[in-house]
Amino acid sequence: MNYSKTVLLLLFAVVFISPSLLKAEEDPTNTPGYYPKEYMNMKNPLPFDLATLREGRTVYTGQCEVCHGFYGDGKGNAAVIGKYKPMPRDFTDNHIMSKKSDGMLYYSISKGVHGTRMFAREEIMPASQRWAVIHYIRTFAKSEDKEK
Predict the structure, then answer these.
(1) b/e for 25-57, b at 16 or more Cβ within 10 A?
(2) CA-to-CA distance for 59 and 82, rounded, in angstroms?
(3) Residues 14 and 45 reside in one and the same domain
(4) Rama region for 115: left / alpha / beta (φ>0; ψ in -120 to 50; rest)
(5) Are 122 and 103 within one domain?
(6) Does any domain span residue 20?
(7) pLDDT of 108 strictly over 70
């Protein structure tokens, strides 16, 4: 009888757990690189000026530098010492950064990045700070080498 009860209990568990597992796998927000359509073409509403860059630098230093690094190369102390996998985004890589719209970056900062240690900041950073830091991190991207 114990065997029968165990089998029934396992079947019961499978029936109730399986739908939630399938639903989680179907959730597009769990897919790396997912961005909702409404974010794809969002433009930064803040001006690209000295005041905005100063605000962005202040926010970056306090919230981002520990992982993304002083130079924005993804080699911050926490990431290097903690051997993060994957490592944080390298903002100096123009090949990658040129493909990221302001809205995509805003979504990543606001909601976090699934499968990484990048957690959502929308509860701790006002929208204006998130937009300011986007302008600032764009200053890390190296321009293409014209002499090649």
Answers:
(1) eeeeeeeeeebeeebeebebebeeeeebbebbb
(2) 22
(3) no
(4) left
(5) yes
(6) yes
(7) yes
- CA–CA dist 127, 58 (Å, integer): 15
Q: Is 134 exposed, middle or buried (0-12, 13-18, 19+ CB in 10 A)?
A: buried
- The better pLDDT of the pair 95, 21 is held by 95
41 and 102 share a domain? yes
- Six-digit token string for 57: 């630098």
Assess contact for 60 and 67: CB atoms under 8 A. no
Give how far Cα 19 sits from Cα of 13, 23, 36, 146, Å.
11, 6, 24, 54
| pLDDT score for 19 | 47
Tokens read off for 142: 């190296």
Alpha-carbon Rg for the chain, nearest whole angstrom, is: 21
Distance CA 2, CA 27 (A): 38
* Dist. CA 91–CA 137, nearest whole Å: 6
Share of the chain above pLDDT 70, in %: 75
CA 140 to CA 136: how far, in whole Å?
8
Cα distances (angstroms) measured from residue 43 to each of 9, 18, 55, 65: 53, 40, 18, 24
